[in-house]
Request: fold
Amino acid sequence: MATKADAPPAEDAVLFREFEHTGDIGIELEAPTRGELFRRGAVALAALLVETAGVAEIENREITVEAEADPDLMHDLLTELLALFTVEGFIWRGASVKEAGRSICVTLRGEPFDPARHAFRGEIKAVTYHQLMVENSPDGWRSRVIFDV
Amino acid sequence: MAGEGAKWALRNGYATERDLEHTEEGGMLAGADPDRISERAYQRGAKQLGTLGSGNHFLEVSRVDEIYDSKLADALGLELGQVTVMIHSGSRGLGHQTCDDYLKLVGGAMARYGISLPDRQLAAVPISSPEGQAYLGAMAAAANFAWCNRQVMMHLAEQAFLQALSIAPRELNFELVYDVCHNIAKFEEHSVDGQKRLVCVHRKGATRAFGPGHPALPEALRPLGQPVLVPGDMGRYSFVLVGLETAMRETFGSSCHGAGRLMSRVKARREAGGRDLHAELKALGVTVRAHSRAGIAEEMPHAYKDVAEVVEVMEAARITRRVARLKPFAVIKG
Reply:
């Protein structure tokens, strides 16, 4: 179950901010907790791939990722999620996160991608390590991720 | 496909012997080791064979609207007013996943070889190391998949023209000018400090542009120099060039591969806000089909430099010579 901090905000659009990066797409995430930061990363990826307003939350998928450092955890989580979309054709709108030491478990709520119903926004080739950042500051958690498109 | 490249397409009726002759490396890079490609990479690639992909990938139907060198154009089978198809695509998810897999493997091994780099998206090990050899095997396999993929798409494009126009293949005369890649590392012999040496040339965002007489070129193209394709943007034009001898001396036989971006994707989308890009492109005589509006916005003509200026610089430097300009009238963004 999602904790209170993990509850999704009303608008997905506030979850991330895109920033200028010639040729690629970069996003910045901010969240009050570490778990919420990863949750927002998962939802942001879906929103970059499709118009998620049309995605029904009728199936759950669970992804567990483990890594020594938080930037690697963000990279590996988003890479797993990208594969979930590109290989298995699953798209999500909602997500919740459980943290356990160096691993996180993300439960995604969505449905099989249907190009007739879901507006495709654009392909993402890969999650890069370029300027990858996850940090904790007095103001909360922040992350920056650049996608190869 | 990862082992044989475009030869797989030939065996399965998607290519002709002539197509392979007009493809860099004959469409199959030696040294490919398909076992070095991960299961996930194959899963991603299998679903995408025969597809363009988005980003800056495209299929462009154009007309030859300017000939700069009629002798070369004639030898390449290009004439004024002729309709051409240009395909820009690559190894798709198979290649991206392979890059990701080897960034992890090579990135983790760098310290053993005393190498450190300023960005984690970069990784390097000696070519002779086990990791270096594994990567080269995987890279060649991914390149072969890309050659096969483009060949299959070219075949599908030919089929589409044959069906839409209800004409015979002989009437359509759909012949490959050249297929060349622009993200690859290859072992080639070059002159370094006056001596012939085998070097590993890494072309990232650069196209091979061998000059006339190079033994790697097929007999039909050898006297001309290697054809180089330089796409521009979907509203203006693209170019067909040939490599010159100077490229062999100055740039390891390499040229630019495109116009290069002027605006970031975010800025292009912002500038396109409220504009009817379909109508604007229509006014330029270009019909565009794309999966998403954002895709068109990010790739709109003015997001790119004017490729004419880019190829003029290359010609002034005597790296390449212009042969023909292609003006697009139908563009598909994957």
Summary: The two ends of chain B are 22 Å apart (CA to CA).
